[in-house]
């Protein structure tokens, strides 16, 4: 007899490996004898509108599975929808559980970051309150690497690999002229500097890495910044600086807010950042007279699936697979986590952890992994992050372009 | 007996395949029995300062050759130096020929774009005037694809492949939300829209391509732009627009100049562009209220050697190799060109062509390859450009990052 049906969704900002977790859920649920495996379109928001698909209509064979692993962005579509508190709007929960019960869903998986884990927490707490036997499991996903408890998050390794690789190429490009120049590279990460720190991974036998790195964990000071850049400028003609989009001045204002006319906010109240590099490049041009260029990785750092970390792809799959195994084993209200056993040789084990202790928490780069002057990261960061970018997954190239799996709308 | 010595240099903006041309020159000259193969550091500017290297000190074996093919940016360093007219500053020419004669150089190769071909023209004309037997050959290179006479230029295919691949990933990323959004992607190309047009190559079985494409060949009109975007917005929630950094309004002003405090110019008088996408995204936000994002490929489109076109790499090598063979055959004052025999199956032949008819000319996208409303490119462009992005050259990955060959400074 088939086990119950499955509902899986993707939420929040996409990554290059979020679909590998989807495949991990799908394949493991299927192989374990679950019934229909539904995918919600655009996360919980779409599910509330009863928009979902039978995933077997799209993932038809093992080639599709491999293709989906190589497909960036959220295959099922995503959302930034915050579930209201159950006490305030119980009808939302009633509607959701009605839909799930009607579809005979017993296992619910949500692949996402901080905000998505809030959804799993709300739903599993509500289920406990109404004695529902539906099991709710979170699958970690975020390029930001800012989820609590877990050693790291699927998505981070590939974004870090992209950043480090592109950084090497940019440094080589910037250094080819004998004229003076300053390049400011803007990297994602609202409050946590994990991604910006990954710029340091470009340092290798054939590359010196960026000259300065500014994380959001450290207060940004325009005067210090000018001085530090000028100091490097003394012995190098081409200076390359990595800076987080989320750097803030002492008054708590984002650097990129200077001169912006309108700053969008999403439903979680997060400001849409951007413009830091161009602003700082202009600032440096004006104050030094040196040609300065701003480069922004923008969404490429989360969707460049043509350059993923094989380890990240595998771990993302495992996170999805383990969430299914845990749910089948009776667990609910938990998220799959990674525990680091050792850096070299790299070794992790997976576990599952109480979602109430993960949701809405945020893990930043430890301050003792940042150099005293606040312009670089330490050896400890390198030892932690470098294993996460190892290995490649060759894209499926068709007529010169990476091929993706897609849902025909 | 060894033939004469060789001097080779790289000039202008780097590309992902400019070092493949360098390898083509090096290997062919070596295999043909030339003497020492010198590489000028930072082009003609460095040579005037007597900065050059013996390339055999750096390219020691076939592995180095393969590594150099995979190394982005100009291995020897580059410059943006304009040779003065020989009548005005004959001492510059005298100094250069003194250096070349002292080094017993008989063959001079310069890998570059429009401005670099001007250098070859000046030098070969001067050589003729003083009856020097040094032979000067140009090797085409530019991501902009704007060199006259040749069917296309080495460097364009890889930049086009990067743009088309990244575009696919960006479109997939932008389309994953069910909310409204407009993404404006800025692509290089001062006056010629070849690179921006390459965004159309992202259109494939699994991707609809960008919705609108704005080339610098067409006058940019803010009102029309607003109307065209709004029209697409009616039937799609996520609009993606590709726009050249070089689009100009009817008054001849670059769109990106609006609101800029200082615009740098290089020694050829070219303005340093940038900011078009952010400016237009802000413009759309303000006028539509829809969340708009600007994405700029910046230098990544010319240095992302981790994603090159195999065909481009091979042709870049051939261009360098054929320049050597032509010079050994007695030719001088010419540039290697490609002639297209057929699109399907793709076939080209190489030839060499009088540099006086190439230097300082500029080839734009033919207007009849642009749709009547000026928002897309035609089938003819597709048939021309698609063969150029075919095939891959796997990067040499070491510890998760692409490895490059480099000169220790």
Q: What would you note in describing this structure?
A:
By secondary structure, chain A is α/β, with parallel strands linked by helices. Helices cover 33% and strands 17% of the residues of chain A. Chain A is built from 12 helices and 13 strands. In chain A, strands 3-2-1-4-5-10-11 form a 7-stranded mixed β-sheet, sandwiched between helices. The first copy, chain A, has a 4-stranded parallel β-sheet with strand order 7-8-6-9, sandwiched between helices. A two-stranded antiparallel sheet of chain A has the order 12-13. In chain A, helix 8 (222-233) links the parallel strand 7 and strand 8. In chain A, helix 1 (18-31) crosses helix 11 (310-328). Chain A is elongated and about 70 Å long. The two termini of chain A are 34 Å apart. The mean pLDDT of chain A is 94. Chains A and B meet through helix 6, helix 9, strand 9, helix 10 and strand 12 of A and helix 6, helix 9, strand 9, helix 10 and strand 12 of B.
Please give the share of residues in helix of chain A. 25-40%
Provide the spatial order of strands within the biggest beta sheet of chain A: 3-2-1-4-5-10-11
Topology of chain A as a string of helices (H) and strands (E): EHEHEHHEHEHEHEHEHEHHEEHEE
- Main sheet: strands, sense, barrel of chain A: 7 strands, mixed
Q: Ends of chain A: how far apart? A: 34 Å
Query: Oligomeric form of this entry?
Result: homodimer
Q: What would you report as the Rg of chain A, rounded to the nearest angstrom?
A: 22 Å
Content-based structural category of chain A: alpha/beta
Residues in β-strands, percent of chain A: 15-25%
Overall number of strands of chain A: 13
Shape by Cα distribution of chain A: elongated
Mean pLDDT of chain A: 94
Catalogue the unreliable spans of chain A. Answer: none
Total helical segments of chain A? 12
Largest interface: A-B, 75 and 75 residues
